[in-house]
């Protein structure tokens, strides 16, 4: 209740907002598990944890000045950041499970559950993108920061496709690089791949453009 009071009485910090949203998501998930006696949507908790990785990486860069101002250090962490960014909007595609989940709980509850997790994941991703654009603008230039974010959003659409349909994870680039490379080269030339990747990448970019309006004075 104290956190809710802070949210309503004054402008909350991003950390407070994310904490409250994450807590709400977990409460809904626990309720579903207790009522349905199944762990059908238990994977949502892990997906949300993965969604936080890009935000944590930007926090590391913000706190480590030497790393932030080192061109190669920033580029290396930016590459790792790109690998994990698709995990944030990926939760949107968990609505694909809605029909199967209805076997255990009312559909309205599962819509509430999935929407809560999806919005929290997207919000965490948007915060990470805002921070990364600032870091790139400070180290390189404002225009390069914008170009990087557009590239990251569109690439995330393809990353979501690889995760949803080909079942690859962010760390498969280290564990199964050959399989991942083969899958990418095979899938990249299919219309379904192009349509899905462009659609979800464009959505993430549009959400980011909408989200960053309050930050126009700090993010150029």
UniProtKB/TrEMBL annotation:
The keyword ATP-binding does not apply. The keyword Membrane applies. The chain crosses the membrane at residues 12-34, 40-61, 73-92, 112-135, 147-168, 188-211. InterPro entries: DUF1361 (IPR009793). Keywords: Membrane, Transmembrane, Transmembrane helix. This is DUF1361 domain-containing protein. It comes from Flavobacterium kingsejongi.
